[in-house]
């Protein structure tokens, strides 16, 4: 069983909502990435999305763009990201790691070579922002054959036909982008999210994570009883930016611990 499936099954049995932090590989420094991942797990991260730095993003807001720029300025490549995953796996064989990025670095390496190296490193899932499901059948088959979950984005404007395509191709979980915009923009409308989740679940049987607009305990608590997972990225990177690079694991994990506590308290009350 894929680590993602095992994790969601365990959380479902416990009546808990998954907490999925996002950080960019190589930010604030390559040497800090693995300690940062371990620190996030220590305070309750259930799955981690690890961003592959890319120079021309289409979904990342300014905060995550800055993180990618810092990593790229330090020479971080896709091969480096996979090496970081391998290093993380030496001490953690159970926490799912999902790479999130764009098609260009994957196609530059070669899809099958990327999938082979990702499997060897210990990657559990891949989100490729610019692979729409209608055009991702071959890629999904390549990674699925290697036990890696192809994970797709759904948005407030996703039509039913695309939801059906995601329902057929996706593995692991689906990622609902709660806002019409880039990461870190705007504020969540909880009622709208709840309505859209109900519609998505008619087409997609996988767990649904919600992200792009969760920035604090209040927004996490508002969504947690309705989603299978809460995804937080930009706010964690802001926490990293606010201190010295060597402080990143401590700062990010201290902040995430407050979200873990908030999510668990409200989900328990709802149950």
Question: In words, what does this structure look like?
Answer:
- With 271 residues, the protein is α/β, with parallel strands linked by helices.
- Helices cover 49% and strands 14% of the residues.
- It has helices at residues 3-14, 30-42, 62-73, 78-89, 103-109, 111-121, 137-144, 160-169, 190-200, 217-223, 234-241, 248-270; strands at residues 18-24, 48-51, 97-101, 125-128, 149-151, 153-154, 174-177, 208-211, 229-232.
- It has a 9-stranded parallel β-sheet.
- Helix 2 packs across helix 4 and helix 4 (78-89) packs parallel to helix 6 (111-121).
- The two termini are 28 Å apart.
What share of the residues does DSSP label as strand, in percent? Answer: 5-15%
Tell me the overall shape.
globular
Number of helices, where a helix is a run of at least 4 consecutive DSSP H or I residues: 12
The topology string of helices and strands comes to HEHEHHEHHEHEEHEHEHEHH
* Extended strand count: 9
Q: Biggest sheet, in brief? A: 9 strands, parallel
